[in-house]
Amino acid sequence: MGKKKVRIGMVGYKFMGKAHSLAYRNLPFFFDLDAEPVMQAIAGRDEAGVKAAAEKWGWASYETDWRRLLERDDIDAIDIGTPNHMHAEIAIAAAQAGKHVICEKPLSMNVKESLQMLDAVRHAGVVHMIGHIYRFAPAIQYAKKLIRNGELGQIYHVRAVYLQDWIMDPNFPLVWRLRKDVAGSGAHGDLAAHIIDLARFLVGEIKEVTGMMETFIKKRPIGEMTGGLGAAMTSNQFGEVDVDDAVAFLARFEDGAMGTFEATRFAKGNRNGNRIEINGSKGSIRWDLENMNNLQVYLDSDEPGMQGFRTINCTESEHPYASAYWPAGHIIGYEHTFINMMSEFIKGIAEGRSPAPNFEDGARNQCVLEAVERSSASRQWVNIQAEI
Amino acid sequence: MGKKKVRIGMVGYKFMGKAHSLAYRNLPFFFDLDAEPVMQAIAGRDEAGVKAAAEKWGWASYETDWRRLLERDDIDAIDIGTPNHMHAEIAIAAAQAGKHVICEKPLSMNVKESLQMLDAVRHAGVVHMIGHIYRFAPAIQYAKKLIRNGELGQIYHVRAVYLQDWIMDPNFPLVWRLRKDVAGSGAHGDLAAHIIDLARFLVGEIKEVTGMMETFIKKRPIGEMTGGLGAAMTSNQFGEVDVDDAVAFLARFEDGAMGTFEATRFAKGNRNGNRIEINGSKGSIRWDLENMNNLQVYLDSDEPGMQGFRTINCTESEHPYASAYWPAGHIIGYEHTFINMMSEFIKGIAEGRSPAPNFEDGARNQCVLEAVERSSASRQWVNIQAEI
Amino acid sequence: MGKKKVRIGMVGYKFMGKAHSLAYRNLPFFFDLDAEPVMQAIAGRDEAGVKAAAEKWGWASYETDWRRLLERDDIDAIDIGTPNHMHAEIAIAAAQAGKHVICEKPLSMNVKESLQMLDAVRHAGVVHMIGHIYRFAPAIQYAKKLIRNGELGQIYHVRAVYLQDWIMDPNFPLVWRLRKDVAGSGAHGDLAAHIIDLARFLVGEIKEVTGMMETFIKKRPIGEMTGGLGAAMTSNQFGEVDVDDAVAFLARFEDGAMGTFEATRFAKGNRNGNRIEINGSKGSIRWDLENMNNLQVYLDSDEPGMQGFRTINCTESEHPYASAYWPAGHIIGYEHTFINMMSEFIKGIAEGRSPAPNFEDGARNQCVLEAVERSSASRQWVNIQAEI
Amino acid sequence: MGKKKVRIGMVGYKFMGKAHSLAYRNLPFFFDLDAEPVMQAIAGRDEAGVKAAAEKWGWASYETDWRRLLERDDIDAIDIGTPNHMHAEIAIAAAQAGKHVICEKPLSMNVKESLQMLDAVRHAGVVHMIGHIYRFAPAIQYAKKLIRNGELGQIYHVRAVYLQDWIMDPNFPLVWRLRKDVAGSGAHGDLAAHIIDLARFLVGEIKEVTGMMETFIKKRPIGEMTGGLGAAMTSNQFGEVDVDDAVAFLARFEDGAMGTFEATRFAKGNRNGNRIEINGSKGSIRWDLENMNNLQVYLDSDEPGMQGFRTINCTESEHPYASAYWPAGHIIGYEHTFINMMSEFIKGIAEGRSPAPNFEDGARNQCVLEAVERSSASRQWVNIQAEI
């Protein structure tokens, strides 16, 4: 009732538009915060599409030009869910207009843009976040707590993969995610960005990398998808794929841990296989997005004979965010990571601080992404020089 | 816009109140039906509690007497999420008032009440359903499709358990779910009702049963829970537990299959272990609620050497309800079974028919529950006499 | 060198003959006991077959009449791996001849025979055992230790199934295991006997049962298998199957635990699914023969938030028998349960005592089997009256 | 009876000595080949130790100098299970003495030695093999068959790890496996060699690599293990660890697949985690040594909605080697991979050819190992130049 309102203007009304809308819609249902989001306006170029989205998802109004959102006084925060090449322009303009900003990942097309964005939000003093949602799975937050508390000891190994298979058909069209001018990169910015974020969150900064990138199918029919990731409209004309289908890299963390990372859209049978394992001197954890409520934990302190990985269903009151939902054993899904993230964004705005992951995290992530790209070209190890 | 509105009045604002509210709230977001629910009013005896629930969950108004909902012209359907002993009275009154009804399970305290309720809704010609939500997991619907299409052949075995552990502490208080006058039974009506419904849905009617029921902890502190299943307020006074902690029974299905069923609140480590396995002449399936997006399927038609259970993540467009949500591999959670169920309820009202599971299913389920109780007392097999 | 020799005479040279032979052969390799087996003679009616088996498996001699084994002075112990209807005659004669006896399960065709056998070995003062090998999986022995030490607290539930699928083809012939005069029963004596033994070993005696038995395919081609379980020689003539294809029963244990048991040869996709779960007031265990090295353990004493089933690979020095084999993480297989069992048999002979499971266990098991059969006929609960 | 005898002389009587002995001992029990091994002599420097091993494991004689084995006329083949630095000398001398040779992995200390060994066996015309046993798991052989038959299509990804944790305690002593002069390398030659072999076997040759190696604990107490991997005898003196604790590398295969490899002894909770995943254009496989009987297979040709990884228990007659053992669903263990391998070695000798994996495989493996080492030093990609 007397709650502070955070009036949102969202840009983009496809997959991420849907996920973010759901999050704003359900946030007050599950979380009792000092502030609450108001779904004020959604923007998109195609009027029919954006109007339908507004109605279906519950936005109070719509715009066909995102710049209009920045001009409106009744909007406090901008949510950017567009293709990657527009992130920087929108985010910088939003900051300059004094709006708080939450932006989908990867933050931008390159480190330079990322630094400009970070500079803009810092200069404007607005709250900023980046949409690395998997941090917000209760199991991941709990893993972080274990690591922070030293339960795993010194970390020796990080092993992270993000495996998908949705573009393996050579007739799958050259959608925007496969075009360098729009997406910046392929599996790299889309998937590797996520596991880099998880590793940074859980273990710390990466010091140096050496990597390889590959495009297995080099030409594809020109076309776009209609109606979701699955359906596609293809043509007889072919265009060149100029982004990676897959990337793999080795990493050294600043604290001495070794890392292996792999992101691909060519791992048949893996629809959404975001998996991370961390081994420390005192214990280990394993997590898999396709079974995201569970965390597997091994503790060296278990007595001999009783040692083994525990499967912890992170739906209990001890697990971050879990008590907002259902009783123990009643699982949550993909979308709840967005609700959890938005709870932090709204709290951050209420308190005037930028919760992690924010643009600094986005920029550091971009530094790793770019270092891998340079390494792939130079065939040498590349240091991460994050002048942030 | 021009959609038919189904104005809901809900009775109850605890666990099921929350789950049903979420479902109504999100239904239009995910499903594009000809009709849509309106969250008109919620009823509960405690004004502060029901008012807070109304505000938090988005109900337009509230009442402190459920009878008021029946009197209001602006309400089309009644949703009953109260303790079990009130189901019959409210449902019958609602039907007599010409309201459609959806009622939580178990349908009632006994077969007699169930038949009265069924009679009332049939006589009134209103749409009716019962909240056996687990039918609405995409994996279960897909299993049904496989069985209906004969992919498993003749069914020989059904093996179902529902294992929980939330009342194992002897100091856990004598909450309403442990009182026969309010709940009717313990694990039996609460948990066994669910697996009976799954078995009936997937395989068919049960012909006869023999069972056993047990109360392991016979006295508990008098008190109620405050704030969810976990927290409890206990006293120094003790009262007798007059419902079952656990039940197990054998069954013969009308088509000749053998069944074993077990429901308990005393299976340490199992928070919500609703698991079912079905073996047929041509294949088998396995499902576990704690990993509810997955269905395990074995097909005899796989060539020798390549035979094994497949783990199918039922998040693809071929899986019922899945396309309403996210791309393949992005899992849904417990609450989505309610959204799926409500989509059927609203469609049923729009089309003037009562989708399964409805009060007939509820009554048949109650016949099985009661037969198990009688068998447990008589120590003999009992025929299911469903005069429905 | 100076080790005591236990000279074995084995009756039977099919599946169990192979498994027992392997066990004797490898026992001295893995275990350093005070005594060691000598593979003295193997007996079987078909000379060509038994001679080939003797040569291949390493028996020093062979006989075509098992009675000859009893007459020979150079044989200390008789190992009975014949079809079930011969167990009693051979075992009693062996005892009377002063030979130690190890007999395959089920001990006999009925309780009466079992008691006669028990009487015979007791009277003769010979060492006796029964081949319930699954007790000898390190994971099961470790589970026993946990239960004995009170780690699981008071036991509330036992849930055991033994699922196979090898006779589901209606053209599979009427082999000896499907004939009552030879096998005594079907899945019941073959498979249920195993899970009854596991439950008795881990939890204790069963007080009463109610059960059902079913024969899904009532006529089969007359014939026998040639060369293993897989290959079969069938004819055009059909005979009646007079044993059960499947059995299920409920049980109450003397200490108050509830049990559900199911054994079937009609669970498609389950080649050898011997699975047991036990729930106690302080913890739970789960085990599955198809993954027999692992034990899943849940402990209530784990701190909140860290609770979950641990997967313990029972290949460490703390796990019974494991140190006889390979380093941790190097798994053993089915046959090693026989080696472990034989190590107890040989030790028992050296020390003049009959290790569990022995004929008393076999007789108690038979009492449960027979009570289930009677219950299936009478459709009532039957008390286990073990006058042993 | 009239079978050709292959008289074995084995060098080494520790872990590999035990495993190889078991294999020779059991080979005739399970496999009916044209030839059979005779356990003629075992050699080791410590007379008491080697004598005890000979007696326990069933060797007819023993020697305290391996050179004696080469001089003996009654020995046909030499089995080398010593520490790595002795492989080359013994193998070359054995070949020159006209003995067939089977040698443990890694083949030698470096590529140069490997080529000398390969040259020696080729020149002598003797049969040679290398002990990459994991090829001989039925699941791996079956995976090979699937890949050879094109069931997985074009291979895009290989993902292999070998994770152990047995030396993580800083007080674990400086055993021979941690000394460069004896072992050559650490996890690299011990564990990475295995997953390189699996990848080469299943997918083909590696073209280039870039890698990193790490020693987390740089000083350890001087001492040796007594009685198995677990028990250790340590002192107060410390020595430098000059081998790697962990290694990771990226690879490009000649056919274009990308590979990631990691081997470590610092992955807490992983006793023996040899895991490999392969993704192709038409399907994928997954395998894990700790559950070695199972192969997980995903086939794109499964109809939409029915797609998922199958868990195939490779114990059926269609699976290589499986029919030598037990009926379907009765698993085998670690040691059976040695029996399978020895069956090929003995067959190879009977037929006068060197089955894979042989010294050529060992040398190619060594080329990869050495390229990774050079890459780790140069921080650049290194081509595999296998002049073989």
UniProtKB/TrEMBL annotation, chains A, B, C, D:
Presence of the UniProt keyword rRNA-binding in the record: no
Top-level taxon in the UniProt lineage: Bacteria
UniProt xrefs under Gene3D superfamilies: Dihydrodipicolinate Reductase, domain 2, NAD(P)-binding Rossmann-like Domain
Keyword vocabulary terms for this entry: Oxidoreductase
Keyword Oxidoreductase set for record: yes
Residues annotated as domain GFO/IDH/MocA-like oxidoreductase: 140-286
Molecular function terms from GO: nucleotide binding; oxidoreductase activity
All copies of domain Gfo/Idh/MocA-like oxidoreductase N-terminal, residue ranges: 6-132
PANTHER family the UniProt entry points to: BCDNA.GH03377
The protein's name: Dehydrogenase
